[in-house]
Amino acid sequence: MLISRFNCLALVVLLCSAAFTQSQTLPAQLQEGLEKEFHLSSDDFEKLAAGQAIARIVPTGQPDDVRMIGVVLIKITSDDFIKAFRDIENFEKTKEVIRTHRFSSPPAESDLVDFAPDIKKSEILACHPGHCSYKLPAEAMQALQTSINWDAPDANEKSNLLVRKMTIDYLNRYRMQGDRALAVYYDTPAPYSLAEGLHSLIGSETRIGKALPDLIHYASTYPAGRPADTEDFFYWQEAAFGLKHVLRTQHVIIQRLPSEFGSRYAIISKMLFASHYFRAAVEFKYVYPVQTPSGEPAIYLITAQRSFIDGLTGLRGAIVRKVAEGRSPASLAADLQLAKEKMERH
Length: 346
Prior knowledge:
Order of helices and strands: HHHEEHHEHHHEEHHHEEEEEH
Number of strands: 10
Number of helices: 12
Low-confidence stretches: 3-23
C-alpha cells in the first residue's frame, strides 16, 4: 500500500494511550486525538462505524512533505491480521501494485528473479552526479556505465543482473550496518542522503518517540537493540505510479504491544530505496483490538504515512500536488476497503 499514499507517524501516542473498550466505538481519547491531530470529522466517524474506510491528507506546511492518515474497522482478530500482513505478497495486492516479493533470510539474488529495472541505455549513459533519470548513488551510475557493453545484444539482461547483484549487496550491507549503509542519491544537483531523510521524518514526530521509545529507537539504530516481541522482514515491490514504474525495497518492523485485552501491534515500514519520485518514506500501522456490539472480535487499522516526494515544489509542483491531494486519499481508502473485504471473507 506504500506506493500511492505516503507516510506519517504522529498519531501513535494518541493510540497507545487510549483505553481498551468492549465496543466497536472508538475510545473518546482516541477519537479526540484523531479529530485534533488529523482533522477527522463526525461524518468520518459515522462512516467508520458503518464499515467504510476513510483517508485524509494532513497539511505539513512543506509542499514536498506529504502526510496522510487512513482508518478502517475490520472484523478480524489482531493476531489474524498480523498473520495476513506477514503474507505481504498477497496483502499488498492493489490495482497499482504490479508485483511484491518478500526476501528470504538472508536475502539472495534468487529473490529477484522477477525484479526488472528496465534501465534504458540513453538514460543511463546520460547520468552523471547531479543529473540522472534514476535515483542512484554516484558509484552505481559509474558501474552501470562502465561494466556493461550497451551495444551488445544482451545489454538489458546484463544490466538487470548487475542491478540485482547491487540490490542484494546493498540490502545485506544495511542488515549489517543499518542506516549508515543507506544510499546517497546523486540524481539532483544537491546529493540527497536517504538516512537523513528518514531521520527527519521520524525525528520530527517527537511524540512517537515518547510513546514507543524502544520501537522507534530500533527503527533508527537497526540492527542494534531489538525490543522484545519484535520481528523484521524485507520485501521489494514494483508499482505503477505517475509516468514510470517504481521499484522499491522496504524494511518492516512489527512489535507486539502488551495489552490486557487482546494483542495490539505497531508496524513501521522504512523505505530503503526507490527508483523514482520518493526521496524518503516511512509508514506506520497500528492494530487496535475492539469488539462489535454482537461480541465479535474486530480491529481498527490505522495507517499513517509520510514521505518526501520530488516534483511538488514551484508553480508546476503546486498543480501536481493539488491533483495528488485529490487522488491519494481516495486511493488509500480504496486499498483499506479492499483489505477489509478480503480479510472478512476468510
